[in-house]
# Entry
Amino acid sequence: MIALWIILGIVVILLLVVWSTYNGLVGLRNGVKNAWAQIDVQLKRRFDLIPNLMETVKGYMKHERETLEAVTKARNLAQSAASAGAAERGPIEGALGMALGRLLAVAEAYPDLKANQNFLALQEELTSTENKISFSRQFYNDSVLKFNNKTQMFPSNVIAGMFSFKSGEFFEVTAPEQREAPKVKFT
# Structure
């Protein structure tokens, strides 16, 4: 009779461990999804700011057409990849960030534009948004790290395997040119 109680106690303890680990994994997975959603919020904000910035800049930079077209193209590409995962979307968003950096750097050559209140306000909003995107990416990667550690370390990896938990994707820059500062030439 005592052996039955011991076996029952062990089974209950194992069930509690499985239950607790499973719930922990679900919580971490949902944290990763939430972190990605926060990046999406900031990216949407950036997408909304870009047309206003472009309209303000167009009047001053008529002969900087190539830069304006690059930003527009990068924005459209980023919007079309909105449903992609972190691995696919990272390089696209990085390219948009580089194009915006070139646009703001080129704008330095136009004193009237630099003094325009609309431009200054939009530039500040865009800079703030870029900072928020950076922090959101960092938070997302931290969340992915915690989740991946939990899904890959023993004993939780056994339960993660039983319930088909997959590792998360880090948001990372893969193209070497995205690691460099934008180069601007005034001719």
Summary: The CA atoms of residues 19 and 57 lie 57 Å apart. The first helix runs from residue 2 to 58. The mean pLDDT is 83.
